[in-house]
Write the structure tokens for this entry.
Amino acid sequence: MDWNRVEISMGDITKQGVDVIVNAANTTLLGGGGVDGAIHRAAGPELLQECRKLNGCQTGEAKITKGYRLQAKYIVHTPGPVWHGGGHGESQLLRNSYMNSLVQASKVGAKTVAFPSISTGVYGYPLEKASRVALHAIEEFFSSGIENSIEKVCIVCFDENTYRHYVEAVEELKG
Ligand code: APR
């Protein structure tokens, strides 16, 4: 695994000049608070118009739309799991969100993809666990042999605490 292809940064995902940004959505895909709200505000009303046609999205699945007023050409929307203590398949669902988002991004030939820290806000997924699941999933995608154009995956963290957890997770996985 070439860890140079993974970058952890602090910032606002709506300002990233990447091909695809990933939205931590809910299953309606009709917007919400947190990063979902920020992305809809930045992308503009056409985003919601397109989302209405998608008929929602299951947890762990991912659907793609245009980026509209964002710098990013596309947005991949994925509902992560709500944390219910860890015994309800949450880690598999979170892994699916990352994997399916990367698959959707590779289908449009994306070279750069930015993720927020999926499920660790309103959905309450503990950061310690979610950061390891996220990076394992990214590593699994790159080592799966799935034909893809992706050169760089960034995790854009909105606060210092989140940032620290993802940096620690990368260090752990690098060994
Ligand atoms: N850029 C990057 N990260 C952001 C931004 C932003 N502009 N705004 C918030 N975040 C961070 C949060 O600080 C958190 O670390 O995104 C991470 C995910 O938090 P949420 O947005 O609450 O997402 P999640 O926990 O997956 O819950 C999803 O919240 O907004 C609703 O409609 C959404 O129902 C869904 C639920």
Observations:
- The mean pLDDT is 97.
- The CA atoms of residues 111 and 150 lie 4 Å apart.
- The pocket of adenosine-5-diphosphoribose is lined by residues 12-14, 24-26, 32-38, 80, 116-123, 156, 158-159, 162 (CB under 6 Å).
- The two ends are 11 Å apart (CA to CA).
